[in-house]
Every structure is written in structure tokens, then in C-alpha cells.
Write a structure and sequence with these properties.
The complex is a heterodimer of chains A (412) and B (287).
Chain A (H helix, E strand, L loop, with lengths): L8 E5 L7 H10 L1 H6 L2 E2 L8 H8 L9 H18 L3 E5 L8 H11 L3 E7 L2 H15 L5 H9 L1 H4 L14 H6 L1 H12 L4 E5 L7 H10 L19 H14 L6 H18 L13 H19 L4 E3 L22 E2 L1 H15 L14 H45 L1
Parallel strand pairs in A: 1-3, 1-4, 2-3, 4-5, 5-6
Chain B lengths: L6 E6 L11 H7 L4 E3 L7 E6 L6 E6 L11 H17 L4 E5 L7 H8 L9 H7 L18 H13 L8 H18 L8 H20 L3 E3 L16 E2 H16 L20 H7 L5
Parallel strand pairs in B: 1-4, 4-5, 5-6
Antiparallel strand pairs in B: 1-3, 2-3
The chains are: A alpha/beta (412), B alpha/beta (287).
Amino acid sequence: MIRPLPDGTTLVHIGPYKTGTTAMQGALWEARPALAEHGVAYPGELAHEMNASMAVALGRVDPGKDLDAFRQRWFDLVAQLRAERPRIGVLSSEVYCEATAEGARTVLDTLGPRTHIVITVRPIVRLLGSQWQQYGQNVPVPPYDDWLRAILDPAAVGEPDGRTGGEGVTPSFWRRHRHDLLVERWVDLVGGDRVTVVVVDDRDHRGLPAAFEGLLGLPEGLLRPPVDKTNRSLTFAEATLMQTLVDRTSGAPWSSADHGRFIRFGAARGLQAAPPDPAAERLLTPGWAIDRALEVGADMAVRIGASGARVVGDLGLLSDRALAPAEGENAPVATIDPGAAAALAAGIISKLTGVHPRPEHRDLAGPVERAVWSRHRAVVEEWDAAREREGARASAARELARRARRRLGGAS
Amino acid sequence: MSHLAKSLLHVPDATGGMNAFAVPTWWASLEDERVTRDEDERPDVTVVHVDGLPHDRTLLVVGGVAELLTEPTLAGLESWVSEVRAIHAAAAAPVHLAVSLDEVTSLEQLLALAAGRRWPRFDVAAAAAHTRQPGADPVPPQSVPGGQDAARAYADALVAQVEVLLPPAWQTAADGAADATACISRALDTDPDVGPAAARVLRDACRAALAGLEADGVTVSGPRDALLWPVPAERGLVPIDVAADAALEVMLGVLERPVDLAADRPVVVPVAELPARALLARLGGGR
């Protein structure tokens, strides 16, 4: 039985990445009317207010976005919570896990002393494949085996005393996933009595929502993570295809704004939205990497247990071999199912068709977005001109009809 | 000359499968005062005085790779690359390689290609006339020349998956589907001149050669995947580099078919569409 948080609390779920955050944000978002009936508020206009959270926690936003506008949006969310005065308010974003010192302080100072931090943790061994895939959708990354060797090198993992590793390949991995250091950091900031660690057991799909229901004092079964087919893992061939595309678009002449909009949130989403080829090989993790990740997980469990934070779930899962992913090594792949190949392009095309024909393009738009905006805008302006022409013709016809009626009336 | 020419477009005469249109009779048929030729200084180059280019260019219009290589070998590729490099080194202005799979038939088309644009241009009137309703008309089925099974499967899957999110974007979706399908069709060879392994080596070499030319300062526009040697599908599957080429071709197609909206056109911004910050700025207020 989980003890509910006291009334007046603001629960801040800080992730980290790949620990069920998208599922919980979706569940909270879809349950907002029911949450309100139980005095719980989940403010915002999106299930995940990622850029607003980034603006405050990290001092940056995605390429092409307006930092000041999103920073203001975060303060607006907090103002909304203050105005509603819910029994419990909830903010959730995995980007808080990487908050700068200033960002963390701003979040805590703004939300006040009744803030409670919730950290969801999963076994590192289960995060390796999904994080490699995630990075591969954004930036060029080495092949999985090379990446694993770099990430799981003791120097990269960091020292037992808590110092994190160097700035090697994808340095944010351990900034995000030294879960023990993350817990200790936030315990230092707010105290152990205001930090709850939820250990996610992937075999129990009700475990995570049930933990949140307990913390929020909600009836069992109220939070139901939506089925999200757009966030599935890629097959090995799909991941290779995605990385081939990212390798080609991560530098000049492609802009980071276009890359983010049309590759990361277009091509990658297109691949994920399509059903995977059942014959395609999934990503396999070598045995040595599984062993090493379980060791790291065991060390983390010890430190989290000693941190003073409340723990919901079994820290033993962090080093449980039964939770290890499929073991093996993928043979290089050079071809892909035509449906998956098409999904990549379909994701880009669909994203292009979402470029709004507003009167002026966004200041921070990349060259591709500007080009497609010009097309859509020209179509809208052509429609407007056609309407004006039709209006003029209709007026002329009405005038002719009026004159005809007068003439006929005069003749009778 | 009466008009104010801002830059010069140097067009070498037809050579080695490049600039096939550029023969004296074609230039003469244009009867355009912007077209000049100095038989004493550069007897093999026609110069066009143009307004729209950012700087002088030497234009090479090329079709598919098979038309350029004297033989489908690495030596044949090297020979063509050497010829481009030689022109680039000797030309009065840097070479722009415009890939066009259609014959050049007008000066307007030539200038569009020289500017890095596709031809024909985006037809605003046709796109506007098509539909105003979201999702009212699906992207049409795509034809696959040659009837390759993998290309056919690709095209069908693509059309089934594309969404048109906003009404004015139907033509963008249709163009994207057509560009990607055309790229796949070009890349997958049903009638190969070389074996599968040799074709893959040649395709990789073509890609490296293009990158090398670009590193030397040659610019490229148009469906540049046509300069990569085609390869066979493998047991009904699409080579991954080909799939990536097709995805990139979607973005390149849009990038190279924009609309030049008049800078001084009247823009009426409905207040409801203005972000609050922009509205404040327009009203002269601060934050």
C-alpha cells in the first residue's frame, strides 16, 4: 500500500528517459477530467510539455523553437496550478532529470516547499537498446556494439564515489541514467522525505500507473496508459536505416531545425507508426554487455537504497538477469522491407504537409520548412484571390439581375 | 545590352553526355539577347546574362548516370569525374551540376536548373484548384516504370501511409510520393548491365565521387540519386542506402520547388493567428 502524498503537494515527475514517462504522461493527460474530480490537476496543452520544461530546466529548447516563449509557457503552467489550487498538482517531464543547477533551483523555488520529486527507474540493462535507438534518431552514433563498449567502459560509467564519466560518445547517457546519482542529487536538494523512487517492473503493466494512483490518492485503475504504437522499438534493420538517414542529414546543408522537424519527428515517427516486419531481426545485446549492465545496476541499487529516498518497488530488479533483453549479436544488415522503407519517406511527407500556411513563416524555420511554407502559403493566397474573383463575379451577376428586373418591371 | 545583368551563366557546349541540348541550332532558336557567345575567347561556351543567380556559374546539365559513363566500371566513372573536374578547374566560374531527367527545351527551364530549382516549377494554380478539403482526396497511386516488385511494394505502402495534415498541402504530399517512388524506381535495376556485387560497388563509388566533387566546390541540384548506379533489389527487399536516398529526395524535391512569394505582397495577418509576442511587437509594446 502506497501512502498518498499530502494535500497541497505538487508532484514533479522527473523521469529519467525511457522509464515509462511517455506512458504516464499519456495516462495523466487522458484522465484529466477524472483527475479533476479527485482534486488532481495536470496542466498544459500537451501530454508532455517538453519544450516548456526544457526552457526552464535546461535553458534551451528544440531547434526552431522560441526559448523565451516556452519559458513563459512553463511559468503559465505553474500560474494555472496556483489559480486552480488543486489537492495535488502534477508536472511530468523527463527533461528535468538533466536540469542544470540553475534550472533545478528555479523549478523548486517557483513551485515551493511542498514539491515532491518522483523518479522512475528501470534496469540499465533494459535501457541500452532503446537509448541507442533514440540517440540514433537524433545524432550520428556508432554501431550498437561499439556504442556499448564506449558506454559500459568503467571510465564512462563513472567512479564509485559518484563522479560521472567523461565526455565520450553520447555523454548524456550517464547524466540521465546514473539513477543513483540522480536520486542523491534531488535528495540533497529537497530532502529524502520529499523524493520517491518508483522501480518499474516491465512485466507488470499496472505497476507504474498503480504507483502513481497510490501517490495521488486516486482509485485503482483510473490511470490507463494509452496504447502508443508510435513509440515502439525499431527492428535492427529499421534502426540501421534511420541511422543512415541521420548520418546524411545531421550536418550541412541540412539545418538542425529541419533535421529536428522532418527527420526526428517525421521520418522516425513514420517508421514507428508502421507495423514492424515480423520477419525482421530485433536488436540483440551481447552477453558481455548484459553482464556489465547488471553489475552497474546492482551498484546503483545499493546507493539508491542508502539515499534516504522513499522506494516503491523492488530495487533488486535493477540487477535481475530475468529482465535482460534478448542476448546475441546482430549480423550487419543491408536491406529492408519495402513497407518500412516507405514508412521512412511517408513520415517525412506527412510532416511536410503539417507546415502551416500562416502569413509569414516562422523566424526559426529551416530552409526545407521555408520552402514548403512558401508552397502552402501560395496555395492559400491563390484560394483567397479565387474567392475574391468569385465574389466579384457574383456581385456583377446580382447587379445584372437587378437591372433586368427593373427593366422587366418597367415594361410591364 | 540594355538590361542590367547581375551575373553570368557559362554553358559549355554538349560534351560527354552533359549539356546535350547545348548545340548552336538550339541557342540560335532562342533568339534571346541575353544569350551571347565569344567565338574568339571561349569558342566552346555560351554565356547567358541573368538576374537571379547569386554569383556566376558554369552549368552542366546531366541526366542519369548510364548516359554519362562510357562503360559501367570504376574506370568509366573516374573518366567522367575527371572531365567534370577539368571543366570546374578551367571554367570562368564554379560548376553547378544540375540533374534533369527531362530534355531542356527552353531558356526559362535552363535558368531554373541553373538556379538549383526543379522543372517544371510548382504549379500554384493547379495545386489550389485541386482541393480545399482535408483528406478529401488521397495521394494518387504511383506508377513504377519497369514494374519492379520491390518498387511496386514500396509505392503502394507509401501511398497507404502518407497523411495530408493541412488542406493546402495535398500537392506537397503528391510531389513527395512521386519523388520518392521515382527515386526507388531509378535505383532498383531490373535489367542490369553488371552483376549485383559490381553494381553495389559502382553505386558506392558514384556516391563517393559526388561527395568528392562537392568537396571540390561543385554544387549539385535536382534528383542527384540519378547519378548513382542502380542496384538490384535483394529477395524483394530494398537496399538501405536506396531507402535513405528516397527519403532524402522527398526533402530535396520540396527544397528545390519553392514558390517565390512577392516580397511586397499584401499580407493580412488575422489577429487570431498572431502569437501574443508578435502581436505585442506589432503594437509597439514590450514585454
